[in-house]
Every structure is written in structure tokens, then in C-alpha cells.
Amino acid sequence: MPMLVVCLPTYNERENLERVVGELGRVFADHGLDGRVLVIDDASPDGTGAVADRLASELPFVSVLHRERKEGLGPAYLAGFEAALAAGADLILEMDADLSHDPEDVPRLAAAAAAADVVIGSRYVAGGGTRNWGLGRRLVSRAGCLYARLLLGLPVADLTGGFKCFRREVLERLGLERVSSRGYAFQIETTYRAARQGFRVVEVPIVFSERRAGGSKMSRGIVLEAFWKVPALRVRAVAGRL
Prior knowledge:
By secondary structure, the protein is an alpha/beta fold. The chain contains eight helices and nine strands. 43% of the residues lie in helices and 19% in strands. Strand 1, helix 1 (14-30) and strand 2 form a beta-alpha-beta unit. The radius of gyration is 17 Å and the shape is globular. The termini are far apart.
């Protein structure tokens, strides 16, 4: 049975963390998964790290990686990926800690990885969607995915989605030290790098829900990074420097 490590990056997620970890534990048990949870906390000032430590002391499938400061989603995931690989994970799954991603979908993503290298929980394939989003946010998200898809030439509908499962071979060959995106461009960059190396990327439908507690981490800087990062990735790939 493959070992699955779910990476949960956190920054001020004290209100959500215990619930999402509890639901993941139940899903692991119900589906017979060899699942672990790795919380990657970027020194949350609201005490998320202390909650994570308590959960790790109570639940054998939970571990915590404390980071000294907030550096963005990308660096947090990269640190988590390296820790998961070192722990012997066969499958490494990334998801939000705010319950926007349904833990019940984890077994479907893990199962799809038996026939694929990267599995994306997709909002924009048949059967997928979003819940409790306004028109403006839906338009921005769709436009961002279309922009990246056209510039990079990737037949992937949801390039900005953060619910993804990697086989360990992908992360071992991806060159994690070369991944430089910090915000949501990280999702685009990792998928593009994997596809350029010939790994098979598939999408399975999921419904993304608005967070139940806490505030969104989206910012203008994150959007701007994605805007310039996409053509930069394309240029580097064409020049053979990706």
C-alpha cells in the first residue's frame, strides 16, 4: 500500500486546522489509506503552530514542520515536499487547510495517481465547480487559467488549482530547487515543469468551496506574480533553460 502524505501549509488557520485534520484522519480510516498529515506552519501569530503541535501529540498520523517566517505558499510547499520525500512518501498531496478542498475527495485523487503522475482536483472539467463564489471571483479565476493555458500550451483546464497529488518520482525529478514561484503561480509552474518532462497530468472533478473561517490569502502581489511568471516560464522553456 502506498504511503500518502497530505501537505497542509498554514498561516493563521487555528479555526480550521483541527477540523480538517480530524476529517482527513476519518477518511484515511474509512478508505484503508496509509495516510499521514504534514502541517507546514509559517510562524502563524494566531497560535496555529501550537494547535498543530497538540494534534501531533494526540494523533500518530500527524507531524508538524515549523518555519521561521511567512514566505509564501510556494516555499512552504517545497519544504513540505522535501520532508515528505525524506519520510518515504509514495504519494504527496497538497491541499488547503481551510476546508475549501473536501477531504472526501482525497481517496479519488490518490486512486487516480495509479495511472497518472500528477493528478489535479479540477474545478473546470465536467462535474467540477465552485461553491459560494461571486461572479467577479469566478471570472478572475477562469481568466487566469485560460491565460496560463494559452501561453503555455497546456491542455489543462485548472492550472491554478491547489488540490494536487504527485507521485514521488515527479518531485524527485522536477528540480524543486529551481521552482521559484511564491504565490499561486506555484501551481502553474509545478504542473508546467512536470508536463515538460513528459509526466502524465490528469484532472478529476472537484467542487471548491469558499473557506469557512479566517481570511483569504489572495493579494494583488500574488496575482501580479502569476501574470508575469507565466510568459517567463514559456520563454525559459523555449530557450531550454527551464
